[in-house]
Design a protein that fits this description.
This protein has helices at residues 19-49, 52-61, 88-102. It has 103 residues and is mostly helical.
Amino acid sequence: MTEPDDRPAPPAAAPRRPAWQRAARVASYAAATVAVLAGACAAVVGTLWRSEDGTRWLLGHVPGLTVVDVHGKLGLPPNANVLTRVDAAGFWNLVLDALETLG
C-alpha cells in the first residue's frame, strides 16, 4: 500500500516579467552606468583643463585639441595669431569690398 506523502508542496514559481520590462530594466542600468562614466570623465577633463600641467597633458594626448595660451603660461612657442579685438567698421568694409570684387 502506498502511504500519502507528508512533504509540503514546492512553492509556486514567481511569474516572469514580460520581456519588454526586463529589457527596460537592463537598458536603465546601462544608461545609468553610461551617465556616471560620462560625468566622471567630464570631471577629470575639467580638472585637467584648469591646470597648466593638465593642459600640457591634454595637448600631448588629444589629437586636434585647440588651446589658446593668451598669457604664455604653457611655455610653448607661439604658433598662431589670435584676434582679441576687432575694428567692426573696417572688417565690414573689407567684406563688402571683397563681395564687390567678386561680382
